[in-house]
Amino acid sequence: MIRRETIRTIIEQEREELNRLAAQYGLLDRRVLEQSVELDELINKYNKVRYYDSQKKKPIA
């Protein structure tokens, strides 16, 4: 599975791209909306990795 830090780096890059697209085309442009969905998916993946990492660290007893 992909590492948290890698996902965080990609999230920041995608967030910058989203902001650039929004400034250039406006918030309702198809490209902006598609980028927003992609960013949401990355954030969900990051949260999933965080959850699984936290479960590995919990003691059994």
Automatic annotation (TrEMBL):
It holds the Pfam family SpoOE-like. Gene3D superfamilies: Helix-loop-helix DNA-binding domain. The keyword Coiled coil applies. Residues 4-31 form a coiled coil. InterPro entries: HLH_DNA-bd_sf (IPR036638), Spo0E-like (IPR018540), Spo0E-like_sf (IPR037208). The keyword Coiled coil applies. It comes from the Bacteria. Keywords: Coiled coil. This is Aspartyl-phosphate phosphatase Spo0E family protein. The lineage of its organism: Bacteria, Bacillati, Bacillota, Bacilli, Bacillales.
